[in-house]
Amino acid sequence: MKESQFKTYLAAADTISGDYAIGYQHGLRRHYHGDSFQVPGSIDAWRALDDDRGEGFRDGESGHPPRGFHGNIGNLNAAGDLPADSQLQVRVNSQIKARWVKQSQMEGLKLSQWVNKTLDDACEGRGTDMATAIDYAGAWQRLNEALARNVQQAEGDPEMFAFLLTSTLAAFSAQGLLDNGSSTRAIELLHELHQIEV
Question: b/e for 71-91, b at 16 or more Cβ within 10 A?
């Protein structure tokens, strides 16, 4: 067993609480260091235990990964901080992926690192939703400014205003900043603010 795999298995066992982890760590050290590693009590007594400590000891002494972990956990990812022992494939729209890439670059991360961080944050309740990755407040401000320009440019011409409004909303929707409900609400707000009929 390589030292890196030994350390990774030990680190994995540290994440497990209880008797299994204690037995596993003793067994793994015995496996890695050989007879030079002495456990409290006799080796045979540890092997004979019929509880979690005994199961953990036997798994560790055999060089198996801790219970609940895949055998590839010894293969470290590029950062070397956590083992990358699984792969996730997701099909997404190219525009959505482009937004993710842009956001990951803004944070100085590779896309895979950003996806891992974002999903971890979501699981831990540290993140909100994808709205934090997209500046919705800024988008609404830009939309408001664009709509105000539309009103000025239309100069009371309902057809021109309808054209400008449709173009503006289409541009914001194409950027993924508006859905149909948001577009409808934007039109309603504009009608309320400017009492313009389209």
Answer: eebbebeeeeeebbbeeeeee
Per-residue model confidence as pLDDT tens digits over 96-111? 888 888 888 888 878 8
Range of the domain at 37: 3-75
Question: Within this chain, do residues 130 and 69 fall inside the same structural domain, yes or no?
Answer: no
**Does residue 39 fall inside a structural domain?**
yes
Query: Rounded distance, CA 48 to CA 193, Å?
Result: 80
69, 123: one domain: no
Between CA 151 and CA 145 the distance in angstroms is 10
Contact 23, 49 (CB under 8 A): yes
Q: Which residues pair with 76 in a beta bridge?
A: 83
**The predicted structure's pLDDT at residue 120:** 76
